Amino acid sequence: MRKFFGTDGIRGQANTFPITAEMALKVGMAAGIAFKNGGHRHRVVIGKDTRLSGYMIENALVAGFTSVGMDAFLLGPMPTPSVAMLTHSLRADLGVMISASHNPFQDNGIKFFGPDGFKLSDAIELEIERIATSDMSALLPGPKDLGRAKRIEGAQQRYIEFAKRTLPREMSLEGLRVAIDCANGAAYKVAPEALWELGADVISLGVSPDGFNINKDCGSTSTDALIKKVHEVRADIGIALDGDADRVIIVDENGQVVDGDQLMAVVAQSWKANNRLTAPGIVATVMSNLGLERYLQSLDLGLVRTKVGDRYVVERMRADGYNVGGEQSGHIVLSDFATTGDGLIAALQIMACVKDQNRPVSEVCRRFEPVPQFLKNVRYQGGEPLEQEDVKSAIRDGEGRLGKNGRLVIRASGTEPVIRVMAEGDDADLVNQVVNDIADSVARSAA
Q1: Does the active-site annotation cover 134?
Q2: What is the model's pTM?
Q3: Active-site residue, selected from the candidate residues 101, 222, 335, 445
């Protein structure tokens, strides 16, 4: 059983277990011990988003890593994918991102990347938990072998250049008016700068972080402000990142939201046409719309589904040789360029398609008609509602009513005490009723 790692690293409310200074110190020590191999000088790269609690967690982690002899390279506020990239680029033994992604400022989290830039496996996370909850005193080095900490200059520009190089050398965004919402988060400096350097006319939102306003009424989970700005400045495209910039949602010139499923469809079609796909399909999660699956079938491409979480998408991509994957929420993983979801790079690839096709975003990014899909979240206090017989019966009944023309996905969230009930199918009224019936059953059991 996991003690503090969840679906995507460690996450919780700041200054309560497991997101405390004490826990961050122990986790830093344990991760440093687990990744110290060989006699070379060991190093860890640490980035963060703009939450107030980032200062506390960063300093505690630095104390933990340096206490076991690791040198800590501090990036400051930087996107999660930049930490993954720089971990590999700087030949670090480990990378850490301090962020709770799209959650409000009260929450924070700790994500780890191995020396190859990929997120850690379940087995390694469990090993870090084991070490962190054991007596580490015998594993500490002597006074002369402690680590050092320093801030890395030029990290932002390194990432900007990396992102720009994912486009063809001759590609320019000149002529595109781009509104970008950085969610007052980790990409508030690098994303607008990269777009401007590529030639775009850039209008920026969510670039005034104060420690409290990350993801607040902005970013990929709250697109109203971006939609308003797209209309106001007559932008050709709107880009909404989340707090750590590993996901993206697009808004077209008409103010219509384009989710991750449509973005994956755009990339899949474009890359197939250019013989860039390394496998006959893409990887997505169980939450991706049935309409995406049907669209891919029309292109003779498959859709491989995984558990929710971009880490599981990446694991399947690596295992089976896929180079396009992602989530409906906007995690788009393009393994030709990155080891994890990268909102800026995904947006650049979409804009490349827009420039190549010389058509409006509304036409380029509307590849299929989504099947009606409904999601309901049911909060619970404890226990296992999905193990109750009444709930199991309601789920079986829902599956029977949907039949072959729909799908049902019920799962416990990996980051909060919530049961997510999702169904989709061609009959919207039926799908809505099935979701409500199952959600009501879960709520009764949870009570």
Answers
A1: no
A2: 0.92
A3: 101
